[in-house]
Amino acid sequence: MNLSILITPVIQAAILVNVMLIGAAYMVLAERKVAAWIQNRIGPNRVGPWGLFQSFADVFKLYLKEDIVPAAADKTFHSMAPVISIAVAITAYAIIPWMDNVNIGGTTYTLSMAPNMDVALLVMLAMTSVGVYGIALAGWSSNNKYSLMGGLRSTAQMISYELSMGLSAVGVLMICGSLNLVDIIRYQTEHGWNVFYQPLAFVIFLVTALAETNRAPFDLPEAEPELVGGYHTEYASMKFGLLYLAEYANILASSAIMAVLFLGGWDLIPFVDEIALMGLAPDSLPAVLIGHAALAGKAALLVFVFIWIRWSLPRFRYDQLMNLGWKVLLPLSLANITITGIVLLLMK
Amino acid sequence: MVESYIPLFVMILVGIIFGASNIVLTEILGPKRSTRTKLSTYESGMEPVKSARERFSVKFYLVAMIFILFDIEIVFMYPWAVQFKELGMYGFVAMILFMVLLFSGYIYVVKKGALKWD
């Protein structure tokens, strides 16, 4: 096999890992700042201007901490769990179409990693499923009662909400007729954003995304008053850091996926072909950069919504959580598919 | 066609290497001053009682089993949804029949109280 075809993906992977790290670092800072503002505090402001380097200081501190593995724990799986979590979270970044192909001087450059994968959305859902293993293993291998309960709760919660997440995406697929995320964006640029045609699916997807990333009000796996820290009670040093990093990486990834599926991806203004109005070719550098900024802006806005919800809403009780997932969201998403089907057939 | 999946495998590999190297790094860099108490299982300051690997609620198994059934439904729906506009009325009626069958199973599960948590 010709090894040169591996060079571009490896460079892109290195860039994306750094994007993920810096994105997660600033999401943690944003979370702490927003939480502080909501609670009428100042928030981190010592490390660098406005606390801009706080997260980096925290990471260096985590590296220098003692790595405590409980004597009763299963050592192999205890180390494996964070690796699975972070590997899955990173892989999702390869699938998201961050940028369109750009044409500079007659040569086309591909800036996204796997932009034209036909099963992109399916791989995305598969990665969410594999992510469950990381958390379940972390909970089981610690051999701690809190960890085990946290891991079990998390597994049951994630698989329950995964159903509604998968089903709410079916409506989008019926409209766009493709699993390819770039095709879905192109369809929305032409016909308007999916959120206008699939408002119910968008709400379901947002709620399930909160549950999939174990965010409040669905953060039962790490409910502090009952479970101490949940599945990462027995984790210290950078192993804890990796689990934490994976959590934030997943938030950005699911925000970006929501922006792609429902909010038009690279499209800045719905129903208006703003790129043509400005007299730019769709594959010229300024147009692609505008598209990238639009996607990043929408993702950032959704990340803010995630943080906002966390600091505004109290936590669910476990039976309420399961009832919402199985008895409300699942029938609603099935109804959404039926209604979408009927409307699409009537319009034909 | 396989070429378009190479970046994905590269990314999985990079992710595993990134995670593994971080774990090795933190094991090298951190101090090692372990004591017996430090390595004991955390139980809110109490002496640990027995192992954590005990029996837990059967509900978790039930949820997992019902999940498998519905997940297969979703996998079945994806190709149908992508081809929906071509399949037209025939495809829609077929899928509605399938959904009604599965939904009656779902109602049975709910009526039996398999999803009741208390």
Could you give a quick summary of the protein structure above?
The complex is a heterodimer of chains A (348) and B (118). By secondary structure, chain A is an all-alpha fold. In chain A, 68% of the residues lie in helices and 2% in strands.
What does this structure look like?
The complex is a heterodimer of chains A (348) and B (118). Chain A is mostly helical. Chain A has one domain. Chain A has 13 helices and two strands. Chain A has helices at residues 7-38, 54-63, 75-95, 120-141, 145-176, 181-191, 194-197, 199-212, 224-227, 237-261, 274-277, 285-310, 318-347, and strands at residues 102-104, 107-109. Chain A has a two-stranded antiparallel ribbon with strand order 1-2. In chain A, helix 5 (145-176) runs parallel beside helix 13 and helix 8 runs antiparallel to helix 13. Chain A is globular and about 65 Å long. Chain B is mainly α. Chain B has a single domain, classed as Methane Monooxygenase Hydroxylase, Chain G, domain 1, CATH 1.20.58. Chain B is 64% helix and 0% strand. Chain B has helices at 6-29, 59-82, 84-111. Chain B starts with 5 loop residues before the first helix and ends in a 7-residue tail after the last helix. The mean pLDDT of chain B is 83. The interface between A and B is large, with 91 and 67 residues.
